[in-house]
Design goal:
Blueprint lengths: L15 E14 L2 E14 L3 E5 L6 H8 L7 E6 L2 E4 L11 H5 L1 H5 L4 H14 L15 H14 L4 E5 L7 H17 L3 E5 L3 H7 L2 E5 L6 E6 L11 H14 L4
Parallel strand pairs: 3-7, 3-8, 5-6, 6-7
Antiparallel strand pairs: 1-2, 1-4, 8-9
Helix pairs in contact: 4-5, 7-8
The chain binds adenosine-5'-triphosphate (ATP) and magnesium ion (MG).
Amino acid sequence: MVQAPVKEPFDLHGAVGLSVENVTRRFQTRRGVLAALEGMSLHARAGEMVAVVGPSGCGKSTLLELICGLQRPDCGRVDSEPAALMPQRDLLLPWLSALDNASLALRVAGTPRRQARAQAAPWLERFGLGDFRDTRPAHLSGGMRQRVSLLRSLLAGKPVLALDEPFAALDAITRHEMHGWLARVLAAEPRTVVLVTHDVEEAIVLADQVVVMSPRPGRAVAAIDVTLPRPRHATDPSVVELRDRALSALGVER
Ligand SMILES: Nc1ncnc2c1ncn2[C@@H]1O[C@H](COP(=O)(O)OP(=O)(O)OP(=O)(O)O)[C@@H](O)[C@H]1O
Ligand SMILES: [Mg+2]
């Protein structure tokens, strides 16, 4: 495989990449006020990957939308460099090719189609989608769709990437391949990443820090630093130990 050139488009050294400080977010529903997050905090250093795990409905997607500025907190503060969201549902447009889907964020930002396609094409090539550039999403595998979707967020060119369960729908082998793929993408294009996942093992294998959330209203109940060397394997004893720590913070008995 052709290696992507190493470059740093953003200054990732120095200041805090993003901080969520004591944030509360409530929604008005037909049954009254629903607190999705209450007193949620999270801090990521620039260039770091923070994985967020928590029970279903605890406010993880809401948290990512707050980080990306798509929602505003009712209380508390969110400070982040501009962030691109890879949403939980795959929002590829069925009538567009892989290449046009990958370059969509560039088009939305005003880049002319030809230029946007020229910018996105080498990325498809590098990550094994070169032969599928004209293929529509319905004819791509799940892993390929996820890669197109992730490339679209990446090509938005923001220093922070918010990834909402990017690998959830994939089988174990594809997910494992995608872990390696993501690591290569980030080596070529460093970003501060907030990765929501329901897979605690995946969180420990990939991230520099794992934030464990409580059930709704969500708040951080643990922030576990993962300083283990890479590549990490799910069966490494130190990975297993940290996984068990995260699971016990989640309240899962083993
Ligand atoms: N726009 C909205 N209006 C009303 N309620 C909402 C809205 N968005 C989210 N909620 C509610 O807020 C809570 C948190 O939702 P959110 O989608 O952030 O959780 P989540 O942790 O991402 O869940 P999952 O693990 O299932 O993806 C849920 O109870 C959800 O129903
Ligand atoms: Mg969600």
